[in-house]
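Onboarding guide, step 5: your first structure request.
Type a short instruction followed by the sequence, for example:

Predict the 3D structure of this protein.
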Amino acid sequence: VQCGLMIFGAYWVGLSSIIFSDWSFILIRTMIGCVGATFVTNQFWCSLMFAPNIVGTANATAAGWGNLGGGVTQIFIVWCLFKPFQA
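The system replies with structure tokens like these:
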């Protein structure tokens, strides 16, 4: 399920390069937003795969890595966008 959701998301991210109108932007952003469901499947998978005494730690670690990735992406994108404007 998680792999399928990621492939689904990759398809829509690829299509985002051809946005040509308001409705296509809304449609593509909505579909990309659905990829957020991978977090739910990841938490469910962690709950099944790890022993009950460490499942909380496994879920917290998985969520933390996701938050770290989001934070690094935000910093990197800002750097990429503003670096060309510096003299």
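Each response can be followed by summary notes, for example: The radius of gyration is 17 Å.
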